[in-house]
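Hello support,

Our group uses your service weekly, and this is the first time we've seen a run hang past the timeout. The protein is LPS-assembly lipoprotein. I'm not sure whether the cause is the sequence or the server load. Input pasted verbatim:
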Amino acid sequence: MSSSDLHSGHRRNGKAGVRPRGLLALALLAPAVLATAACGFQPMYGTLGTNSIGTAELQQVDIGVIRDRNGQKLRNLLIDRFYADGRPASPRYRLETTLTASEQKLSLQKDATATRAQLVVNAPYLLVDAATGKILFQSNARSYISYNVLEQQYGALATVENAYDRAILEISNEITTRVAAELGRKS
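Update from on-call engineer: The timeout came from a worker crash unrelated to the input. Re-ran successfully.
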C-alpha cells in the first residue's frame, strides 16, 4: 500500500473505505435538511395540492375582465391558475388588471427594415378587498420578448402572436406567484 493510498482514504487494510470528508459533509448536511423540513417550509407549487401556500386564498379572488383579445388570454390563464375547484361564490378579493403592449425594432438593415424586434407587455394590477374596496396589494408585471421579424406574411403574424402568448404566460405566472405570496402573508 502506498502512502498516497493512506492519505486519500481510498483503501485501508486492503478494503475500500469512506472518505472522512464525505462523512463530515453528510454529518453537517443531514441536520440542515431535517431542520428545513421541521420549520414549516412548504413549496408554493408542488404536490401538496390544496394545502399549498396561498392556494385556498387564491380561490377567493375574483378576476376582473381584461379588455382585448390578449387580455382575455391573460384572464383565462389566471383563471386556470387561481381556481382549482371552480370559481368562488362570494369572493373575498378582486384582482383588477390592464394590459398594454409595445413593439420596438432592434436590428435594422441598411434599407431600414427590421430583422429583430422586442415586444414589451406591461400589466399593472391591484388586489382589492371585495368588502371594503381597500387596495391590499398593487404591483406591475412586465415581460420582454424578442423575436425575429420574418418577410413571409403568415410567418411574421405567427411569430408576433407567439411572442404575445409567451409574454402573457410569463405575466400570468408572475401575477399568480406574487398574489399567492401576498395572500399567504396575510393568512
